[in-house]
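input
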Amino acid sequence: MKDEAIKKINKFGSVSSVIVTILKILAAVLVVACLLTSVVFFFIPKNAMTFEMSDDMKMTFNLNEVSGGEKLFDSEADREKFKEEFKGSMLRSSKGDYDVQSIDFTDSDTFVVDAKISSYSVDFTKFQILMVICSIFFAAVFVTLMFVGRFCKQIKICDTPFAEPVISSMKKMAISLIPYVISDCIMNSIMNSFLTNKASFNFDINVGMLAAVVLIFAMTFVFKYGAKLQQESDETL
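output
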């Protein structure tokens, strides 16, 4: 007769297995869908359709807040000179470079800057590359879910959470998360490059997932120690 706590662990494993199976099917469908879409784009002429993408930005500057009340522009001529020098310049952001379109003073020391990101076109070739990369990303997700599913299967049938198969599957699950974390980082960089039309690589790691990897690895050591204590206890009895 199994202990009540073990029954709850087994039940948790059963429910988790069903959820993971559903997620695996979804990930597999997304892999196939991305690959099929990239194949379709391959047969479409490059210039059959293009997408023009742009973005606007408006910023308000109150110079009184930074000048301590001192007047920075003594006359209308100074303000006009500033507008001419500033117009046509570029403002850089994570989304891309914005071209300053106009500058309007609302009073002597407050002005509004209207800027627009340089529009660019996206053709089917870029979408094809993006779909291939998305399929690789979802494949990494599928592999991770496969190892998560194996772990759930082990806790579904285990007699104790300190059993060697449970610990081994937990460790493999943690290792399988590493490619996912890396692919997620690369995917974010590629999406940023796609949206801004500029090549960029920002090593922006998903801190939450990285913490999960470290935590699971730590838990494997805890479970190994628990297995050792249980073995010593069984030998004593």
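quick obs: The longest strand covers residues 96-107.
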